[in-house]
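Before the break, one more example. Copy the sequence into your notebook; we will annotate it together after we see the structure.
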Amino acid sequence: MLNFGLIRIGILFKEYDIIVVGAGHAGCEAAAVAANMGKSVLLVTMNMQTIAQMSCNPAMGGVAKGQIVREIDALGGYSGMVSDQSAIQYRMLNNSKGPAMWSPRTQNDRMLFAQIWRTKLEQTPNLDFWQDMVSGLLVKGGKVVGVKTGMGMEISAKAVVLTNGTFLNGIIHIGEKQFGGGRAGERAATGITEQLVELGFESGRMKTGTPPRVDGRSLDYSKMEEQEGDQTPVKFSYLSNDPIAKQRSCHIAYTNNTVHNLLREGFDRSPMFNGRIRGLGPRYCPSIEDKIDRFADKDRHQLFVEPEGWDTVEIYVNGFSTSLPEEVQYKAMTQIPGFENVKMFRPGYAIEYDYFPPTQLELSLETKLVKNLFFAGQINGTTGYEEAACQGMIAGINAVKNIDEEEPFILKRSEAYIGVLIDDLINKGTEEPYRMFTSRAEYRIMLRQDNADQRLTPIGKELGLISEDREHRLEEKKLGIQEITKFLNKTSISPEQINHLLEAKETNVLSQKVKLNTILSRPQINISDIAQLGEVKSFFEKYDNEVLSCAEIELKYSGYIEKEQEMVDKMNRLENLKIKDGFNYSELPSLSAEAVEKLSKVKPRTIGQASRISGVSPSDVSVLMLYISK
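Here is what the structure looks like once it is written out:
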């Protein structure tokens, strides 16, 4: 019924199990997983036309990020399938390094990506939509019970997931101009930060940016380096097996000293240098003016000229992120070889927004102050579609777990890059946009992109997110790896059968028969080489490249994998030492003052978690272990 302009639940809405606020990458995964786990979900977004919008670059994956996308897919999420269905180019990064570093990446059709995401969400049972701005939360007795919207509605729910991206009090900067907005052409979200601060949350400001978009018809690609896609692409989704009919090339261009000097002319009007931007930006994805300032000795910087889709001329100038005045941006770009006649569609800009330090969350991504309230994505201080999407998935799963009064779902650092990311955020916090790298994972040889399904699909099955088709494919893959490993370990080959290959690969020839596994252990030899030998070719023909590659990696790197597993076993012993809720660390006089402060703030569940908190020393961990053992 109506009550002084306030529309109460019962007219338009039922009580939902879960409300997801925001329809970016985190919100989409959160809504999808919660609905697929059988809960009634309402996805609230300020604009139904920008669901799953690629706000920055038109690409998914990359170094460590590609592993995250495959992990999301292995658990039953949508990001991998959407990326494959909208891909215009595939590349496996770090191919020249070891398999722990291999990271898949797609260049995507921006509009098709969002369209496919929306279609998948609309086809997901239990999922409703509402276009409105959420201006506040309904909180009773320390528990969230719904949301308030800009149109004056109160919608009840048992749990709420906030995935506000860059919209919380967002301010866009272009030179000396600044205006409210969460993204170009879209207004900022207000009200939520202020309420959360009143409830006792700590908030901060962060900054990110985006480069200009230009008209591809105005570029001279003959002056750039062409970057083609892989001839044998590796897809993100373990369910994707359709061949790739075609791919679009990207190109590489370079700045020069003339470009740098023109950009420097606008530094006095740069919000980054004149103090108007207070938030910290991403260290590993700096603006072009930041690169020129920090790396003044470099006379050029690499730019990636990336098409926005199959049927558009719009180009994303990756590496030229900037908040300088638009005329400065344009003048400098015209001095880049190939950009002499460039036409700009829209200038680059920086955006400042509110975030909440993630040490205020449990490992489940539930807030410590308000029960059944979850944060995911840039609200936690991360940057990147992939980091946001995996947080959304974990928050959605744990919102369901909370409603069902089950133990939270927490991935360990040894189980997934997703576990590394969340563990880092909760235990270490972040004062700058957090981005995932392979170097952050101490068990990266175990957390490869090729084995994400073997690691996580059984877990996804327990959650009820895995189809029979996906389960069957995993079993076939595991059986294939076992068969290949057994064949390599028991099959011998003579010098006459293989010396011609060894000579061609410039490795020592044989003088007697040896097992194939000893040949494959040589760094110069790949399983594809062995698979082409006439004597064994028929055996390998029934296996696809993915199965062959997995078997090869597990054989070649078995020693390293065993050593990492020993490290995992030692850490798991610490993870099994529980710390009781409400433990008073100040009662232990042997703990350092910093350890007492940090442990009291984070409230770790285990000794293992406590050992990873910044400011907690090994001697502090020893004190805790001694106390618990007593």
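Residues 498 and 533 are 8 Å apart (CA to CA). DSSP finds 21 helices and 24 strands in the chain. Try to locate both features in your own notes.
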